[in-house]
Amino acid sequence: MRIFALLITALLAANAAADPIRQTKGDFYDAFRQLDTDLPTANVYRTASGAPGPQYWQQRADHKIKVQLDESRRRISGSQTVTYTNNSPNPLRYIWLQLDQNRFADGSLNRMSETAADAAGRMTWKERETPDVLTYATLAAHQSYKDVEHGFEIGKVADGRGRDLPYTVVDTMMRIDLPQALKPGQRTEFSVAWSFNIINEARLGGRGGYEHWPENDTYIYFLAQWFPRLAAYTDYAGWQHKAFLGSGEFTLEFGDYEVEITVPSDHIVSATGELQNEADVLTATQRSRLREARKSDRPIFIVTPDEALENERDKASGTKTWVFKAENVRDFAWASSRKFIWDAMIHRQNDDRHPEVLAMSFYPVEAEPIWSKYSTHAVVHTMEVYTRFSFAYPYPTAQSVNTWKSGGMEYPMITFNGYRPEPFEAVEGETVADAPDKTWSRRVKYGLIGVIIHEIGHIYFPMTVNSDERQWTWMDEGINSFLDYIAALEWEEDYPAYRPHQSVLDIITDYMVSEDQVPIMTNSDSVLQLGPNAYSKPTAALIVLRETVMGRQLFDFAFKEYSQRWKFKRPTPADFFRTMEDASGIDLDWFWRGWFYSTDHVDIAINDVREYRVSSGDPDIEFPQDREDYAGKYPETLSQARNRQEGRETYLDRHPELADFYNEHDKFTPSNADRNAYQDLLDGLEDWERTALQRAIADNEYIYFIDFENIGGLVSPLPLLVTNADGSEDFITLPAEIWRRNYHSLTKLLIREQPLASIALDPRHETADADFSNNHYPRRLEKSRIELYKSADDTRNLMADMLQTLRKAKGGNDGSARKLPLAPKRVE
Fold it and tell me: Would you say the CATH fold of 298-312+340-425+438-465 matches that of 31-55+467-599?
C-alpha cells in the first residue's frame, strides 16, 4: 500500500476542563498526573526537592544499660538509664517506649488478632486458603506459650534523682508521664528496670531468642528487641506508637550506647559497637589473633572450631561482663554462646572517620565449613558494593552471627543469619571414600551468601538511612533488596538471586497479575503477601527505573544523593520520590503512581504493524504499481484458473469482435485527466512542500504504523528490537511518555531506510512484562516439550501395608502415634 505525502495539520483537542483527579466524562485517565497533589505538602522540615528542610529535627536517646543472662532459667534482667533530648519545637508531657516482648504476652493485640492462617506460620497463599489447617508449628507454639510466661516485667521507673515516675503500659507500648513538660531543646533522664523470659525462637519466631542443642544442653542466645526502646517522635506523625504486630518493624531514635552484658564466663559475645574490655574477657591468644585480623584481608580465626568444641564440653560456672560502646546508633542487639567460632578480617574504605572496618562472623560448629568459607567475605563484599551506591560504611564493625536455619534480621553493626550444611549420610550398605563430614545444597550456599548480603545491607538501610518501618516496609526492605540484588550479581556471574538465569523482573509478574496483592504503599501490617509486596516488587521497580527508565548514570547519581541527604535522618516516601526526580531532572510521577500506588501490571501487546511507501502521485508511476499491488493482494479466482487448466474457451475468445476499449485498458490505466490532476497538485504545493515530496521520493523510505495496546494498565517504556530484512538489528527504546494522551492504546510512526522483517517488544526482559506471547510481530510460534502421561495406581493394599515392619518414631516413643481427638472432625 502507498499513501500520498501531504501536509497534515495535527489538531490537539484541549482537555482543560477535565478534573485532574476524577474524570467525569469520557474515559480519559491521566497516568502522568503530578504526584504532588497526593504527597504531603512541603514545609520547613521537608522541602519540595526531597531534602531535609532548614528546620529539620529529630529526637535523641542516649542509653546506659546493664543486663545479665541467667542461662539456667533462660531469662535476662536489666536496667537502663536514658538521656532523652527534645529537639522538636513541641513541649512533651510524656514519653513513649516500645515494649516489643509484650507481643508474646497472653492477651496481646498481636496474639488476640492472629487468624488461623497467621497461626499456621509460613505457608503459601494458596495453603493459607485451605480450610482448617493445624500445623505442628502451631501446636508447638501453643505449648510453648502454655509452659512459659512471656512479655516484659517492668520494675522501677524513676527520674534522674531516683523518684518514681508514673507509667502506663498499652500492649507493646509504655507511656512515662513526666512531672513537667519537657520543653524544646531540653533533655531529661529516666531509668527503667525490667526482665523477661527469653523466647524459644524456633517455636515462636520472634527475631530474637535462643536456640537449644539438647544432646549437650548448649545454647545460642541472640537478643533483639530486648530492652524498652524509645518510640520515635516525628514531624510527620508525632509519636509513632502503633502496636507491634509482627510485620511492621521499628521506628527508632539515634543515640550513643554503653552496654554491660554479664554472661557465663565461657561465652563469646557479639554485639553492636566495639568491645571496650578485651583484656577482661579474651585470652592473650585471642587478643593476639584479633590484632592479626585487623591487618588481614582474609578471615583469621579468633576462636577456632576445635576451641569452640572444647568450650562446649567444659561448662564454666562463673560469669564475665563484656562492655560495648556504640556511637550514633538507633538500636542495640547482641548474641552470646559457648558454641561460637569467631573469625574476622579487615575492610578498608575511603573514609576519614572509619578507614578500616572490622568484619566478623560468629557461628557454631554445626555451621561449618560453609560459614568460615563465605560469611565474612560476604560481609566485606556487601560493604564494597553498598558504599559505591550510597556512602562509606558508617561504623567500626560489621558482624554476621549464625542463629537459625534460614532467614535473617538486622541491627546496627550486627546481623543474625541462617543457613547451615547438612551432615553427610552414605546410603545404607555403601561406603564413600574420602566423604566429607558435611555437604550443602545450592540453595544453602546461595541462601547463606544472599541473606548475609541482605542483612549487612540493612545496616545502611534502615539502620543509617532511618526510614519508618512501622508504616512503610518497602522503604527499608525494598530499597535494600534492590541493592542486595545488585551486590549478588556482582558476587559472581549467573548468581541465582531468585531462580537460575531468571531475573526478579521475570519472577515478580506472577504476583503482579494476581488478585492477592495490594499497592506497595500499603501499611506494613495490612500487606497480604509481604515478600513480593515489600521485597520483590520494589526491587523490580527500581531495576526498571535504573536500567530502562532513567539509565544508570542518572539513577546512580540521584540514589546516592538520596542516601547522603538522609544519612542518620528519617526520610518518608515523599522524600525519596522527590529526591530521585530533583537530582535526575526526570519526571517520575507516572512511575511512582503506577508501581507504588496501584496494582496494575505491565502487559503491552503489539497488535498490528502496517508498512507503507511514500507515493509520488504521478499516475504513470503509481498506477502500474497499484496494479501490481492489487494482483498481489487479490490473486486470480480459483474458478477462472481451473477453467484455463481445463482448456475451456471463453465467449470472447470465440468472438473477438466483441472486444472494446475496456478489454485493452483496466482500471489502473492512467488518463490525461489523472495526469492533469497530478500537475494541478504539484502547482498547488508550496516550495518547501514540493521539496519535501521530492526528497521523500528520492529517499524511498519505508513507513510503519505500529499499534500497541496496554493490557495490564501500567504504563511502561517500550524497548523494541527491530530486525531488518537484511538480518541486521536496531534497538530502540520509546519512553513511557508516549502513553501520556492515551494509556490504553497508541500508534507509533517509524520511518526506516530498509524494510523490517520483525519487531520484538522487551526482548531483554527489562520491564517486567507479564505476557511475552503478544510481544512479537509477526506472532512467534511458542515452542516447548510435552511429557507423556501415565496414570498412577493409588489403590490401598491394606494386607500388604499391615505386614510392613513398624518403625519406632524418633523421640523415644513406641511409634504408636495418635491423632488429637478434635471431635467431631480431625485436623491433621
Answer: yes
Q: How far apart are CA 210 and CA 33, in angstroms?
A: 51
Q: Which of 43, 61, 462 is nearest to 236 (CA)?
A: 43
Cβ–Cβ under 8 Å, residues 178 and 94 = yes
**pTM for the predicted model, two decimal places:** 0.89
Residue labelled with grid coordinates 580465626: 301
* Cell numbers that stand for 589 in this block: 510521577
**Which among 473, 603, 598, 485 is positioned nearest to 547, based on CA atoms?**
485
Q: Cα–Cα distance between 273 and 65 in angstroms, integer?
A: 13
Q: Cα separation of 461 and 480, whole Å?
A: 6
Q: How far is CA 659 from CA 4, 648, 654, 664, in A?
A: 35, 18, 11, 8
**CATH class assigned to 31-55+467-599:** mainly alpha
- Measured distance CA(655)–CA(298) in Å, rounded: 103
3-state DSSP helix/strand/coil % of the chain, to nearest 5: 30, 25, 45
SS3 category, 429: coil
Taking domain 57-273, whether its CATH number is 2.60.40 is answered by yes
* φ, ψ dihedrals at 820, nearest 5°: -70, 140
Is residue 541 scored above 50 in pLDDT? Answer: yes
Q: How far is CA 537 from the centre of its chain?
A: 5
Residue closest to 54 by CA, chosen among 86, 85, 84, 89: 89
Neighbouring CB atoms inside 10 A of 119's CB total 16
Mapping DSSP to helix (H, G, I), strand (E, B) and coil, where does residue 708 land? strand
What CATH class has 298-312+340-425+438-465?
mainly alpha
> Would you say the C-alpha torsion 533, 536, 542, 544 has a positive or negative sign?
negative
Q: What angle do CA 149, 154, 158 make, to 5 degrees?
A: 175
DSSP string, 270-299: EESSEES-HHHHS-HHHHHHHHHHTT-SS-
| Separation CA 560–CA 540 (nearest Å) | 19
Cβ atoms of residues 27 and 713 within 8 Å: no
Comparing CA positions, the residue from 230, 224, 120 lying closest to residue 174 is: 230
Residue closest to 172 by CA, chosen among 234, 93, 111, 91 = 111
Instruction: Give, for 145, the enclosing helix (H) or strand (E).
Output: helix 136-147
Question: Which tens digit of pLDDT belongs to each residue from 660-714?
Answer: 999 999 999 999 999 999 999 999 999 999 999 999 999 999 999 999 999 999 9
> Who wins on pLDDT, 120 or 316?
316
Domain range annotation of the chain: 31-55+467-599, 57-273, 298-312+340-425+438-465, 605-647+663-777
